[in-house]
Amino acid sequence: MTIPEPLIAQPESRQSLHTKTPESGVPETELEMHTDVAGEIQTVSPSRRRGVEKKVALFAAKLLVTGACFWYVARQIDLSEVWSAVSLLDFRWAAFAIVMVMAQIPLVAARWHSILAALAALDARMTPLAMVAATAVGAFFTQVLPSVAGDGVRAWLIVRLGCEWRNAVMSVVIDRAVGAGLAIALGFVILLLPSGLTALGGYRLIVLVVFGALLAAGVLGLLLTPVFVPLLARWRYSSWIATLAASAHRVLLGRKSPAILGLGCLVHLLTIVVVWSLARAQGLGMPIPDAAVLFTVMIGVALVPISIGGWGMREIAVVSLLGHHGIAPEKALLFSLCFGLAFAIGSLPGAVAWLLYPFGGSQRSAARAT
Fold first, then answer.
1. Which one in 64, 75, 192, 359 has a CA-CA gap of 20 to 30 Å to 243?
2. pTM assigned to the model
């Protein structure tokens, strides 16, 4: 514990404090405890304050990027045309897209459950229903807060269900990595298939190289995990990376791997269906291969953490891509906004689960019974 500077510079004042102890009736040890706690607060509070300031600054920077992107898009479109296009939407297809978003929640929950099983971290109270509820709550918070906060809520909820903190955090990180890795792998394959949108406005080769490099790095890192884990485990500050890498290796190459990867692919396929449904809602008549390319672009943009939930960046990418194929920027912007709103509305069951599902209720009941 760091001793405050005044206490080092003025030892006589601390000694005089001890001499007055019998008169005040307060034990010496208690006075020492209060002095030490005050010193700890003085040394820790500035670091915590700096951490909070960094997070606020990062959020403000992302908000600024999002606002700048929407300002840039707004300069290229006629907002009145966007509003007029809303009245032409076929809300039956939009509702179907929202249902597909909701259908992803139990699939993600099953994937997460399989990851926890592979980590041998399941508790009796972590039932399939509880995992669906926790996943729904996490999806809801991801829509209203940064995605890291949504994942943190997921981890916290299963801790309340009996999971250890370390396993909870590792399972969420691995689950997020599986989703991102599969999106990159599917995107790489999709861009190799024939489609009217695969040219990506002349950037297809660059995107293929980036996706291919990320995919190769991920696979190579996974295969070489047994080699570098012992090296990382030697140092205190990298031991947690070694633990996470070893756990990911066990999950992705274990007997639960086919189920985890299969569920992850199914989740992304449903997202492609969402894209296709929203295109039908606007009367764009987009075939499935084109919807798959658009999925790759939007998910790829969302993986770049420089805006809030990919908003703004996604709109620029969609307007630019569809504009090269003769679709008016107003319709392209509406399409991108509908995509984000479909996921926002589809996450609302998480708010109900947050209010009604008794996370940790069994623990409280048991405590009262004892």
1. 359
2. 0.80
